[in-house]
Amino acid sequence: MDDFLAARSQMALSLGFHIIFSCIGMVMPFFMAVSHYKWLKTNDEVYKNLTKAWSKGVAIFFATGAVSGTMLSFELGLLWPKFMEHAGPIFGMPFSLEGTAFFIEAIALGFFLYGWNKLNKWFHWFTGMVVGVSGLASGILVVAANAWMNSPAGFDFVNGKYLNIDPIQAMFNKAWFSQALHMCLAAFTATGFAVAGVHALMILRDQNKEFHFKAFKIAATFACIGALLQPLSGDISAKDVAERQPAKLAAMEALYKTEKPAPLLIGGIVNEKDKTVKGAIKIPGALSFLAHGDFKAEVKGLDKIPENEHPPVAVTHYAFQIMVGIGTLLALISLVYFINLIRKRSLLEKRWLLKLFVLAVPLGYIALEAGWVVTEVGRQPWIIYGIMRTKDAVTPMPGIAYSFYIFSAIYLSLSCIVTFLLYRQIKMVPVLYNKTNHNDQ
Amino acid sequence: MEYVVITFLCLGILLYFLLGGADFGAGIIELFTSTENRSRTRKTMYQAIGPVWEANHMWLIIAIVILFVGFPHIYTTMSVYLHIPLLIMLIGIIARGTAFVFRHYDAVKDDMQWLYNRIFRYSSFVTPLFLGIIAGSVISGHIDTDAKDFLSAYIYSWLNWFSVAVGLFTVALCGFLAAIYLIGETDNDHDKRRFIKKAEYMNISAVIFGAMVFIAAQFDNIPLIDWVFRNTVGVTAIILASFSLILLWYLLIKGKTKVLRILAGFQVTMILVAISYAHFPNFIRLKNGSAISLFETVGPEKTIYSLGLALLLGSVLILPFLGYLFYKFQKKEE
Predict the structure, then answer these.
(1) Would you call A40 an interface residue with chain B, using a CB distance cutoff of 8 Å?
(2) CB A403, CB A7: distance < 8 Å
(3) Where exactly are the transmembrane stretches of this chain (chain B) (predicted)?
């Protein structure tokens, strides 16, 4: 494995790992806060137990997300020193604010996890909310930094020099809003479906039905609202990418030739050598509409872009298909869920619907990772879009492949342990449920 | 604003040494505790650092973000030439943080605890060791930006007597800080005496490793003695540290707790001041005799201005909240 590929793989692995943990860490506190609120309002012990059960999951995920995030703040320099040397002062603003938000989150989490019976109950609830809000803020800020790589702003690039640096302008680059919105909704959808699905499974197994059903409803409501809003946010993103990064859009849709009007390709097998796509379903004019809001508009294909600036087409295209496909499916499940809710049908008897939720446990995260691949692989070969190439930013140190192997092993074992721990947590719910047997931490 | 940012950088590094250090130290203490007392040590430690450990490690993030936003040249030079020790330190941070949480939140307490405990203890030792090695390497003048071969560019930059001695010294200091901290966190008289003993041992080893740092410096031709004793600040810091050492032993024998913490923190601060003052504002010393200075590599004006503002704003939000956290969860003195 050559060093450049190893560095890219290690970065992708670290981010791919971190993204799941941090999404859970930023979304779960909101579920907890709702359940906590219901407990404070209704005095129903089930909600208290639920809040505690979830908070243990959050503690595990937060710690894992925090250490992998620490890792990333070093890894940017360890793997891409030449990028950081120039980019640090320009896109650092969201990072420094994120540091603050993250710090507040860690403090609030300390209060929340250890504050049972020690704090005023509403202050305790408030600290839980602070965990969620500051986590969400961290997420938005980090995505804003990534958006800058897609849509560089806040400096003038003159003869290879970065002049007139304005970090505020860099933070509010053109892509920050659409990317952050899409990411946040994805986090809520994916985590919501994962949590709801696990509880649905327990309901199907007839274990502690009351507990799991309360949990299911909170998580599913968040998930389904997210899933229904996500297509709208996706539309904003598509129009934005079409304008700023035509090469990425063309790769997402495997559009090798500029067309007017351009069809939307669904599925299909990409042949990167012949620059063709086989077996895709074509919807005439749909891409023109999605990208520019006009069924007859021209969409720039890869032929209009110099060959050495093409992103990998197949990966981007497949990832995009996966994301959109799953997104659509989840939106449909959400629709069914809300229809049942409005008609006041008993969800507990709709076993097929619960089964759909179980099926959806991994789907949200698969879509989320696929979306991340679309953004990042679709940006290649650039690390700063149009300014610096990824291969020019890599560290001069040889042997990165070994560090990639080590981290693959670490992340793989961490994933296994966390899954194992969650399995045990869920298995222990009946014990927690038995009031004589639960302790306070 | 430059000064604000540099102050926060120094503060971040110092607090990470003190708070994160005490945190690592707790694991080191556990490592050097006999099996019969371990579970009690673990419990005391958990109550003491459980609520605050995440926050303690945020100082590292603050310091690193300041470096890469405000002083990118320093950040990237370290990332390139100290890649390997940084990587090991990071692995240590990952292993330690996750093991600490896993062992507490594993719903079933079984043989897995054995694994978590092992990982936690060893990584508590390795992480500050490499943190110290990195700190030592930055000022050791072994970083060679003109190196042509792998060994001198990426290995000898940190693998030298001085850096390793600083690493061990750091470990001893962490253990010392933790022992002092834990004394005040237990009600049990037996445990209290145990932690006092530990603090004494750790203090003695810190003095020994401290002496080794000076010897290693002579060995590696590092003018450490000049740095420390050729300026008033260095000398004053050393004198204050020595005096507080005497006072500290006196109080240690008396078993006072809260004053001890302040004293121990003060001592470590003085040591850091004594070692680093002579270079300031130089941050990294290079093999060719030149140095990378904070002022010369500071980022563009607007960046520093907004970074400083973000830090000030952040500290208004963070410090009271953090102070309350420490206050709320500390053991009340009877």
Answers:
(1) no
(2) no
(3) 6-32, 53-74, 80-102, 122-143, 155-180, 201-219, 231-252, 259-280, 304-327
